[in-house]
Structures are given as C-alpha cells and as structure tokens.
Amino acid sequence: MPTAAAPATRASADSSPSPAIEAVDLTKRYGDFTAVDGITFSVTRGEAFGLLGPNGAGKSTTMRMIAAVAARTSGQMNVAGLDPEVEGPRVRARLGVIPQQDNLDEELTVRENIIMYGRYFGLPRRYLLAKADELLDFAQLSHKASARVEDLSGGMKRRLTIARALVNEPEILLLDEPTTGLDPQARHVLWDRLFRLKESGTTLVLTTHHMDEAEQLCDRLVVVDHGTIMAEGSPAGLIREHSTREVLELRFGMDRNAELAEHLEKILGDDDAAGFSHIEVLPDRLLVYAGQAETALERIHAAGLKPMTSLVRRSSLEDVFLRLTGRSLID
C-alpha cells in the first residue's frame, strides 16, 4: 500500500477544526442558466462524501469548482483551508483528481505514466522511481509495470488512474464516476483500494450513478437536483427518512398493475401491522413500500389476489434517489 499513510499523519497532526471542504451559498451560472444554485455543504477531513444526482444536476460543475478549474459566480468555498480562486495552484497541489474518462497516456508504459505525472508536481525523478513501484503495488499492477497502457483492461486502467492521482500524496481525492463501465469484479477491487485510502486518512469526494456504490463507500452524501440540495445525510439515515424499511415488488401483468394499485392501497391502508406507506406504479410492476413487506404480502394473498411474481427486499438508496429526483429522464 502506498504511503497514503502520509495523509493520515497529516490529519492527526492537524489540530485545526476546519473541514476539508466547505461551501456556503455556492452558485455557478452560465449566462441565464444556473448550474449550481446556492448550495451549502461541508466535508469532514478523512470522510468519504458523495454527490448524487441525475445528469445535469450540477455535480460535475461543483467538482470543477472544488478542483480550482472553474470559477464560482457567487458564494464562498474553502478547500484544505484555501480559497480555490485565490490560491488555485496550492489547492491543486493538495488534490488528486480521477476524471470520469481515463486520460492516461496510451503510448507510455504503466510505470512511465506515474513518473511523468509526478513530474508535473515538480517531484524529483529519484523519488518518483520508488514511489511508482509503491503505487503500482497498491493498485495491484506491479506485474504490468512495463506494459503499455493500451494493453490494459478497463479495470486496470481505472486502478492506474487512481494510483497516478496519488503520486503527490493528496489530502483530498476527487472521483468522478470512478467505476463507470467496469464489471462487478473490477468494481469490487476498486472499492477495496478506495476503502484502504479512506482508512489511511485520505478524504474522498465522489460522484456516482451506482447507488450501491454510494451505500458502500460514502459516510455521508447529498442528493442534488437542478443545482440544489434535495437531501443530506448518511446512506442509512436517508433511507430511514425518505423510505420504508422494506419494499414489496409485485407483478400482476402490465395491463393489471395500475388498476390494482388503488385496491391494494385500500387493503393495506386499514392494516397497521404491515407499516404500509404508499404504492408506486411502474409499467412492469408495483412497488409497495412498507415496514413489514412480508406481512403486506400475506394481507394481499388473504384478500384473494395472486401476483405473478413477488419479491421482498430491503429499501435502498436507489429508492430514496428516485423518490427525490423522479423517474423521468429530463434533458
């Protein structure tokens, strides 16, 4: 593992109570369009913080302002105790950035990518030779050190992008959709690397469309839509606040789902044992939100209704996300 232990030392030695990132009434406009509309949030040093939202919600714009590559229209922001607009180079020196699309040099070897990137920070070559080996070991890429980047799998390229971003031992790591396009196995390997960084004291800030990823990685998150914050809290806290403990998925057939929803509401609404909340009608199924989904299913069977399929599952962050931001695609 790399001396990502270094951030932990910094964090423990730093007696300042200031957060890693703090934004107050942060706003970004492009002409008449408001991409980020007066949002306020803070990120504690050493935590994993998520920005969730549909496309166009303002996540990437917020990340660009944190990374000191986009100026804010109004509001205040501090990153590692510095104003990105006033001290952009110093802020960028403390950050590691993982873009949504890998921007590796395909013609260089795996080790050369890390060394060349480190030179941008003015790090000496002697230091980088040892650091590259350390980072490749952390990313489980030592056996590919001399391989050309174009020969790597998607998961390997992603791990190399993260390893490269750690060459300057950043205090804060910004990750934009870190596992997009990866298969489940590669995603879990990447999660393991990120967990290790978090445990070492590195602050993680990520955007993701994978709700299970947000539940796994984030200590706390905000749900953003149309440039504003819709909700904030831990994944478990948001589920408790905006959903029920369980969800019952029922399929009666696409021509019957909608017509049976009102009938089911009457059956379940008179029974407190199920902890019924509401029903959501989808084209292919009904989602019954209840504290005790098994009890709700028993009541439905007792009323003589026989769904084609039924599934009881725990409520997830995806249920919260869709309830807050809607299920329709709006371009």
UniProtKB/TrEMBL annotation:
Family listed: Belongs to the ABC transporter superfamily.
Major site of localization recorded for this protein: membrane
Keywords noted in UniProt: Antibiotic resistance, ATP-binding, Nucleotide-binding, Transport
Membrane topology: Peripheral membrane protein
Gene Ontology terms for molecular function: ATP binding
Coiled coil: none
Name of this chain's protein: ATP-binding cassette domain-containing protein
Top-level taxon of origin: Bacteria
Source organism: Nesterenkonia rhizosphaerae
Location within or outside the cell: Cell membrane
Record domain ABC transporter: where: 21-251
SUPFAM superfamilies: P-loop containing nucleoside triphosphate hydrolases
